[in-house]
Design goal:
Oligomer: single chain
Distance between the termini: 18 Å
Radius of gyration: 21 Å
Shape: globular
CATH class of the largest domain: Alpha Beta
Number of domains: 2
CATH architecture of the largest domain: 3-Layer(aba) Sandwich
Strand order of the largest sheet: 9-8-10-1-11-12-2-13
Strand content: 15-25%
CATH topology of the largest domain: Alkaline Phosphatase, subunit A
Structural class: alpha/beta
Length: 402
């Protein structure tokens, strides 16, 4: 359904809704026939919620397509990621509160480590701490090159924001330089359309200066770039669904994707224990809350099955406090799957559960996990269909047609 159609169906309601996202929640068994990370986790609170709720699986983008975090979250917010496309750079900029100007091209950067032959040995520079990264990013920001202005800002850990303001008008149709795996050199900066050449040339000039600034370092001696983007003109989430909306997240990118669609966003310390106090403090000012947990995705990308299990269990432990803060309807899911056996995002469908509002929940005790969700009452749907379902359960959508 088009967002304009949803806007026309939206109606006032006193109910409050919560979207709890465990980033990269979906997984795979560690051994054939074994449980996934979610199935292996001891989650009595999620299980109880699942028993009185409705389960299913969602495909974030399309069958067989592995989503990035931006498209995955846009899908959860009700935006079809095949229609509403955005590079990660804008999300990073909005996440750190950077004021993009018309014509700016923003890109998300990773500090990485390359060897003496220029091949990437670590795409995240050992997940360098934010404190150690800040002076490195400041040195990168001091680089001046012909062709326009370049601004570099720290984001979190190895991540940085690069914003280029070319002297000539430019689009952001530029290919990523991240090769996606170690053992390869960073890719060339390639304008995918002639209209993007001014920005691409400026980035090339800037990257050419990086070895002279960072080359003496043992790690974090180069940068990888992905997600070139400019600000879009989209329908805003609060206008579409009629919700006063707040994001609560530790990582800037997720606050950025929320701000992109018109939500307010509050920063919290990393870790699930920070969510409930933040939710309770903001409860009276908002109707919709998006809560984000990053640790599941990080553990999956690190190939750490046990740590991903432990992170899921830590979120389960704080779930009662989240529910006590008063959401009437709840959606728990992930933006994509990150199986620890693959050490990366994957195309596998993602489990979800709804609770609160009218539903078709069964009476049998269930374990929240991929198997139960595969047999759930909702079945398998696209990720962008979840938010209209949450709105309907919250009494926010009226009847369509006479």
């Amino acid at each position: 359904m088009d967002l304009q159609d949803i806007r026309e169906l939206a109606q006032p309601s006193e109910s409050k809704a919560m979207l709890l996202v465990l980033d990269g929640l979906g997984g795979l068994p560690r051994e054939p026939g074994g449980p996934t990370e979610l199935e292996a986790a001891t989650t009595p609170n999620f299980d109880e919620l699942a028993t009185r709720g409705d389960l299913g699986l969602h495909v974030p983008v399309a069958t067989g397509v592995t989503p990035g975090s931006g498209p995955g979250h846009l899908s959860l917010f009700g935006y079809d990621p095949l229609v509403y496309r955005i590079g990660r750079g804008v999300l990073e900029a909005l996440g750190v509160g950077f004021q993009l100007r018309p014509g700016d091209v923003a890109v998300r950067g990773n500090l990485c480590t390359v060897d003496g032959e220029g091949r990437v040995t670590d795409r995240r520079a050992g997940r360098i701490s934010t404190e150690e990264a800040i002076p490195i990013v400041e040195a990168m920001d001091a680089i001046e090159v012909p062709g326009g202005e370049v601004v570099v800002r720290p984001v979190k850990e190895h991540r940085f924001l690069l914003v280029v303001r070319p002297d000539q008008p430019s689009t952001a149709e530029i290919a990523d330089t991240d090769p996606g795996r170690t053992g390869l050199a960073p890719l060339e900066v390639v304008a995918q359309d002639r209209s993007a050449e001014p920005a691409a040339a400026l980035v090339r000039n800037w990257l050419a200066e990086l070895p002279g600034v960072l080359g003496t370092r043992d790690r974090a001696n180069m940068g990888l770039l992905r997600g070139f983007a400019q600000l879009p003109d989209w329908p805003m989430f609060p206008d579409v669904f009629g919700w006063r909306s707040l994001a609560i997240a530790a990582y800037p990118m997720y606050r950025g994707v929320a701000r992109l669609v018109g939500m307010d966003a509050n920063e919290v310390p990393d870790g699930p224990e920070a969510l409930a106090p933040a939710l309770l403090a903001a409860r009276d000012g908002y109707d919709f809350f998006f809560l984000h947990v990053k640790g599941t995705d990080k553990a999956g990308e690190d190939g750490d099955f046990d740590r991903k299990v432990a992170t899921i269990e830590a979120v389960d432990a704080v779930l009662p406090s989240l529910l006590e803060a008063g959401p009437d309807t709840v959606l728990v899911t992930g933006d994509h799957s990150t199986p620890s056996t693959m050490r990366a995002h994957s195309w596998h469908p993602v489990p979800f559960l709804f609770a609160g509002g009218p539903g078709r929940a069964g009476a049998e005790r269930v374990k929240f996990g991929e198997k139960a969700c595969r047999m759930g009452t909702i079945g398998q749907i696209r990720g962008c269909e979840l938010m209209p379902l949450l709105a309907a359960r919250a009494g926010r959508l009226t009847k369509f047609g006479a």
